[in-house]
From TrEMBL:
<dbReference type="InterPro" id="IPR001128">
    <property type="entry name" value="Cyt_P450"/>
</dbReference>
<dbReference type="GO" id="GO:0016705">
    <property type="term" value="F:oxidoreductase activity, acting on paired donors, with incorporation or reduction of molecular oxygen"/>
</dbReference>
<dbReference type="InterPro" id="IPR036396">
    <property type="entry name" value="Cyt_P450_sf"/>
</dbReference>
<keyword id="KW-0349">Heme</keyword>
<dbReference type="GO" id="GO:0043386">
    <property type="term" value="P:mycotoxin biosynthetic process"/>
</dbReference>
<dbReference type="GO" id="GO:0004497">
    <property type="term" value="F:monooxygenase activity"/>
</dbReference>
<feature type="compositionally biased region" description="Basic and acidic residues">
    <location>
        <begin position="606"/>
        <end position="622"/>
    </location>
</feature>
<keyword id="KW-0408">Iron</keyword>
<dbReference type="InterPro" id="IPR002401">
    <property type="entry name" value="Cyt_P450_E_grp-I"/>
</dbReference>
<protein>
    <recommendedName>
        <fullName>Cytochrome P450 monooxygenase</fullName>
    </recommendedName>
</protein>
<keyword id="KW-0479">Metal-binding</keyword>
<feature type="binding site" description="axial binding residue">
    <location>
        <position position="491"/>
    </location>
    <ligand>
        <name>heme</name>
    </ligand>
</feature>
<dbReference type="Pfam" id="PF00067">
    <property type="entry name" value="p450"/>
</dbReference>
<feature type="region of interest" description="Disordered">
    <location>
        <begin position="590"/>
        <end position="622"/>
    </location>
</feature>
<dbReference type="InterPro" id="IPR050121">
    <property type="entry name" value="Cytochrome_P450_monoxygenase"/>
</dbReference>
<dbReference type="GO" id="GO:0005506">
    <property type="term" value="F:iron ion binding"/>
</dbReference>
<dbReference type="GO" id="GO:0020037">
    <property type="term" value="F:heme binding"/>
</dbReference>
Length: 622
């Protein structure tokens, strides 16, 4: 079996390796062999060159008398490109404050894999779905290992298992066995009544704003709403967020929101910054300790739904909350979630349960007041499905709402809140396209930029829920739309989040007509872990209905009779809304067409009553 010399084009010829080539093998088998030797992730992209000639047959390769160059998808191997940067700070000021806009600019300039360095920390990002699918797969090449280059490193908690822990740990294996049943489809159906009661309890606050003619900050109240439901379902706590419109935010919610802000600040400023014994790094450590203390105390105080242990699936359906579930659930060996993992697993379930959902709820309301016709179509779908203020929003009911599902998907595509999912290279490797990624480097599939990539989506800046009915979207790459990431480490709470939203949004839309207050560009906070609309204010005005009945007859009797007295039974009815709302103030037409939902990055500006002398705005007091 002859040995031939192979090297990666782009590397010195002196780096060539002697590899035995079986003359009887096929080209595919040789590519697999070469990929294994050089840690090339996708063998199908390999081609061979000798003296600038392509070698397409095994015989040509075995007869070559010079070292053979390896190309990847027609490219020489190279480091991912990126801006050169400045001394000490690197690319910090080329990325921040508007990291969404600046990363988009870098992808357009440098291609699908980019490299940036911020205050000594190097990060890779991609907007390519094929590469993202490789990165998210737990494999010989990538894993979730939260090292110092990972954006979650300041929050790392091995005991948590999920989200804040590494994959290659016993804690992850245990937590990943116990937590998913509590957040699966069957368990989520069990939670639906609590979700509905939560949103209905909020009505008195939003009604109060309507009666006073006041607008309110969307994110702040969606944070209250999302955390109210999660607090009850995970910790068994009633946060009392809607006891009145000025109700204080529960300490737990304040702390977790603060953690997401501090973590972004600390992780974006280099490894050295996170080690400081003062300032934001110390505050982050102190808050983590306080959160752990609160959850530990809550576990001791929360009432149990029973004393007997239950198998995992039964516990998920019978437990009164996730604390009750975690304490009573047993696997097929009779083992339970270890006490060492209990506190931080519940912290993750609580924090992840409301932070992302509240941001997504905010973008959903943003869509109602920004994109023409959305609110009307969603309301009409509720009416067409005989949904009113008394409807119990079970999963069977929400599953019938096709346009709501498309509206949520399009919002998650255009305005996805998540930004931080990262995976770590296990070895020095070569990605498709010839990009070299060093061992222990972190690469981030950039969800926002994947979802808005013009190579993947037709007119991606246009908000169009109907695109989800097209063959083009139905046949998309599996990683072209990944709002909850993908692979073994994807979000385990996605069923919970989607069901919560599908309960909240119909209830809010049926009761209120939403209009925007102000026409300033929507701002997001670049130093927050999630993307949220900080300065979005809306009016929520109570709807009143009068039914306009299409010409249609009921033929249960010999003589046809008009059924105007039974409009709830007629599928073809259209609502007639008797409201005199203020004219909705939207972004200008250019911004609507190009989807400029967020353009700048500034701290949240508190609005006060009578701002500008023309409108009343309200933000809860803290």
């Amino acid at each position: 079996m002859p040995a031939k010399q192979f090297y990666l084009l782009g590397e010195p010829v002196s780096s060539a390796r002697n590899i035995d080539v079986d003359p009887k093998s096929d080209l595919g088998g040789l590519k697999d062999l070469i990929a294994a030797h050089f840690a090339i992730v996708e063998p199908s992209g390999i081609d061979f060159l000798a003296q600038d000639l392509h070698l397409n047959e095994i015989a040509e390769i075995t007869s070559a008398d010079t070292p053979i160059a390896i190309t990847i998808d027609g490219n020489a191997v190279r480091d991912p490109p990126g801006p050169k940067g400045f001394p000490y700070v690197g690319n910090f000021f080329e990325v921040y404050p508007d990291h969404l806009g600046n990363h988009q600019r870098l992808f357009e300039q440098y291609g699908p894999v980019i490299k940036t360095t911020s205050l000594g920390r190097t990060t890779y990002q991609t907007n390519d779905p094929a590469i993202s699918a490789i990165v998210f797969a737990e494999s010989d090449f990538f894993t979730k290992k939260i090292n110092e280059a990972h954006p979650l490193y300041p929050l790392k908690q091995t005991a948590a298992g999920v989200f804040l822990g590494d994959t290659d740990t016993p804690e992850w294996k245990v937590a990943h066995k116990f937590l998913p049943p509590a957040l699966g489809p069957k368990a989520v159906r069990h939670y639906a009544p609590t979700m509905q009661k939560t949103v209905e309890d909020s009505f008195k606050v939003f009604d109060d704003f309507d009666e006073q003619g006041e607008a309110w900050n969307v994110y702040q109240y969606m944070l209250k709403l999302g955390s109210q439901a999660v607090g009850k379902l995970t910790l068994g706590l009633d946060f009392q967020h809607f006891s009145n419109r000025d109700a204080q935010m529960h300490e737990m919610v304040h702390l977790i929101a603060g953690v997401l802000s501090l973590n972004k600040k600390v992780s974006s400023k280099g490894d050295w910054y996170g080690k400081l014994p003062f300032g934001d790094p110390k505050r982050l450590r102190d808050i983590n300790a306080r959160v752990e203390q609160i959850v530990g105390e809550t576990i001791q105080q929360t009432a149990r739904g029973g004393d007997e242990d239950l198998p995992l699936q039964d516990a998920a359906l019978k437990a009164s909350n996730m604390i009750d579930y975690a304490v009573r659930a047993t696997d097929n060996k009779g083992e339970k979630l270890p006490e060492s993992s209990l506190i931080w697993a519940l912290v993750v379930a609580t924090g992840a349960g409301f932070t992302t959902t509240s941001s997504l709820l905010s973008w959903l309301i943003y869509g109602l007041v920004t994109y023409p016709g959305m609110q009307e179509r969603l309301l009409q779908e509720l009416i067409d499905n005989d949904i009113d203020e008394n409807t119990v929003m079970t999963a069977d009911v929400t599953d019938r709402l096709d346009f709501l599902d498309k509206y949520i998907k399009e919002t998650q595509r255009r305005h996805n809140p998540s930004f931080q999912p990262g995976r770590t290279a296990r070895v020095d490797l070569v990605l498709p396209g010839g990009y070299k990624i060093p061992k222990d480097s972190v690469i981030l599939p950039a969800l926002h930029h994947i979802h808005n990539n013009p190579d993947l989506w037709d007119n991606p800046n246009r908000f169009n829920p109907d695109r989800w009915d097209t063959d083009e979207v139905k046949g998309r790459h599996k990683a072209a739309y990944i709002p909850f990431a993908m692979g073994p480490r994807m979000c385990i709470g996605f069923n919970f989040a989607l069901q919560e939203i599908k309960v909240f949004i119909p209830k809010l839309i049926f009761r209120y007509n939403f209009t925007r207050e102000g026409n300033e560009p929507i701002e997001y906070d670049p130093m927050f872990q999630l993307i949220r609309p900080n300065n979005l204010y809306v009016r929520a005005e109570r709807r009143t209905f009068s039914w306009g009945i299409n010409e249609r007859f009921h033929k249960n009797s010999v003589n046809a009779t008009r059924v105007a007295d039974r409009p709830s039974k007629i599928k073809s009815r259209r609502y007639v809304q008797y409201l005199q709302p203020n004219k909705t103030k939207r972004l200008n037409e250019k911004n609507i067409e190009h989807g400029n939902g967020y353009t700048t990055s500034h701290p949240l500006k508190r609005q006060s009553e009578g701002d500008g002398g023309t409108r009343k705005c309200h933000m809860f007091k803290d």
